[in-house]
Recover the amino acids of this structure.
């Protein structure tokens, strides 16, 4: 997970502060030395670390903190505030001109994910803001670059304009005419990259910039390269003049140094982040939410947004009505499994829940358990899904064989279903006023141990379910 190492170290520092209760200036200085080392180990720029620690220290040794009833919490709040300031206060947006199209020029080194993220950006604006994007294949040098853009463009449901391997300057001119004729209000130019920054690359990009007059020049950088990503951003900005950054592979970067250094070093904000290989694994960069994740406080807003985007409201209402009137069956469980899968990786989702991120950092969560659970349910007959109580040993053997699993796996699923069904009935009784509030609270409190159901090491634990 992103910032895993940094988050762990900072939480260790804050835990020691909390254990001290009352703080003095020496305690704060010791803690700040540890914070400094944690940031440097996370590959944050030395100058950025020095300035950050200086600002936090200045505020943390003030009277309002040292004389506070909860000084450790005050220090954490200051660190949180300064992390947000470091990454940009609020999420920066791409500003669309009054007269379309909005022209976005994507640039970056080879291997940074530029082509894929051009499609991700197009898909995002198509689905979230009802834009009519056009992807333009300007990388005529890298083998199969045009084919790659066409493939990801088709997956995103976005048209791709290409003219083969001719001069990219001409491609840009013709693409802009095409966009005007076909009503495309967003044009995304996927330009060529190199393995390193050179004069030839920058000359071509500068020419394209003059021809296209882009509203936004977006640099795509690989978060896993750490300080190299920041150096690349600085070089592109000096030569070309960038407006913003997309950080890719943030889900794989356990350090997070690039995310914390880019704005401070270049003055250019991170606007989006790539958090996986799929086209919808793409997020707006919210500094305040990222700071919350770093400090182990979760990110409920992003989790709620993911849920609202992926959970069909009408389906949810139908399920609620069905459960109330007829009860909860395995068809409903299968539907819920599919809804959860749409939201992304389970480890990243659980990491957004306050207090759980650090608990699961070492868990080997097997995302394939969802596929196994689906296979088990889909190997049942319609009658078995609706009435699981009819599933006898012979049926279990047939289901296990048909799903490529073991009888124990079928038993675990049925046991978990029974637990969930009982809970649904209790909640139904509560809604009808047949259960006291105290009993309801006790029932929900008992679910707190449900996280033991996270699958690890290829097997089930506790409840046997991956959530």
């Amino acid at each position: 997970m992103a910032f895993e190492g940094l988050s762990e170290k900072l939480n260790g520092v804050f835990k020691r502060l909390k254990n001290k209760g009352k703080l003095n200036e020496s305690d704060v200085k010791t803690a700040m030395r540890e914070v400094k080392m944690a940031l440097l180990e996370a590959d944050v720029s030395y100058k950025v670390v020095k300035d950050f620690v200086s600002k936090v220290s200045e505020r943390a040794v003030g009277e309002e903190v040292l004389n506070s009833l909860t000084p450790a919490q005050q220090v954490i709040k200051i660190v949180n505030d300064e992390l947000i300031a470091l990454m940009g206060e609020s999420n920066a947006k791409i500003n669309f001109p009054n007269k379309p199209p909005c022209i976005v020029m994507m640039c970056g080194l080879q291997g940074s994910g530029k082509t894929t993220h051009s499609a991700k950006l197009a898909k995002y604006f198509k689905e979230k803001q009802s834009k009519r994007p056009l992807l333009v294949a300007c990388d005529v040098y890298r083998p199969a670059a045009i084919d790659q853009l066409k493939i990801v463009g088709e997956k995103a449901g976005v048209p791709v304009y290409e003219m083969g391997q001719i001069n990219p300057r001409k491609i840009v001119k013709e693409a802009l005419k095409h966009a005007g004729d076909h009503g495309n209000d967003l044009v995304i130019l996927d330009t060529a990259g190199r393995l390193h920054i050179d004069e030839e690359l920058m000359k071509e990009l500068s020419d394209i910039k003059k021809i296209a007059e882009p509203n936004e020049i977006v640099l795509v950088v690989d978060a896993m390269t750490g300080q190299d990503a920041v150096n690349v951003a600085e070089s592109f900005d000096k030569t070309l003049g960038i407006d913003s950054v997309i950080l890719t592979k943030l889900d794989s970067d356990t350090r997070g140094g690039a995310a914390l250094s880019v704005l401070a070093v270049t003055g250019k904000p991170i606007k989006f982040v790539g958090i996986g290989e799929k086209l919808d694994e793409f997020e707006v960069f919210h500094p305040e939410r990222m700071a919350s994740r770093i400090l182990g406080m979760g990110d409920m807003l992003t989790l709620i947004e993911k849920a609202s985007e992926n959970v069909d409201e009408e389906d949810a209402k139908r399920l609620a009505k069905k459960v109330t009137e007829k009860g909860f069956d395995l068809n409903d469980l299968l539907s819920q499994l599919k809804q959860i899968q749409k939201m992304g990786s389970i480890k990243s989702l659980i990491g957004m829940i306050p207090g759980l991120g650090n608990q699961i950092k070492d868990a080997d969560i097997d995302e394939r358990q969802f596929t196994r659970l689906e296979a088990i349910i889909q190997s049942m007959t319609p009658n078995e899904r609706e009435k699981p109580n009819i599933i006898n040993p012979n049926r279990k053997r047939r289901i296990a064989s048909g799903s490529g699993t073991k009888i124990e796996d079928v038993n675990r699923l049925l046991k978990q279903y029974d637990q969930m069904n009982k809970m649904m009935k209790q909640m139904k009784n509560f809604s009808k006023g047949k259960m006291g509030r105290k009993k309801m609270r006790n029932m929900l409190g008992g679910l707190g141990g449900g996280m033991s159901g996270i699958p690890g090491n290829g097997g089930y634990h506790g409840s046997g379910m991956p959530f």
Summary: Residues 207 and 425 are 67 Å apart (CA to CA). The beta strands are 102-107, 133-137, 160-161, 186-190, 216-222, 244-248, 270-274, 282-284.
